[in-house]
Amino acid sequence: MYKRYERTETMNQSITAKSVTEEELCEWTRKATEARGQYLAGELSEEEALKIITAT
User: Fold this and answer.
1) Would you tell me the crossing angle of helices 22-40 and 2-10 to the nearest 10 degrees?
2) Cα–Cα distance measured from residue 10 to residue 35, given in angstroms and rounded to the nearest whole number
3) 17/51 Cα distance (integer angstroms)
4) Is the pLDDT of residue 6 over 90?
5) I want to staple 35 with a disulfide (CB 3.0 to 4.6 A). Which of 28, 40, 49, 54 is the partner?
6) Within the chain, where are the H helices?
7) Could you tell me the sign of the dihedral formed by the alpha carbons of 27, 11, 17, 1, in that order?
8) Alpha carbon 37 to chain centroid, angstroms
9) Dihedral of the alpha carbons of 40, 45, 46, 47, in degrees to the nearest 10
10) Average pLDDT, the chain
11) Cβ(20)–Cβ(1) below 8 Å
12) pLDDT of 21-45, one tens digit each?
């Protein structure tokens, strides 16, 4: 996810279907961090956590 954002920002590429805005990256980071914490606390299964983390 971050690489998509980085490529768009650093290469001055036009927006594509796979481009990610800074807001989208921040939202994904927040959700991924929460999912990781919940997984480590035993509140989510590995499958549930990965589903959240890999969602784009």
Assistant:
1) 160
2) 29
3) 20
4) no
5) 49
6) 2-10, 22-40, 46-54
7) negative
8) 15
9) -150
10) 80
11) yes
12) 888 889 999 999 999 999 999 999 9
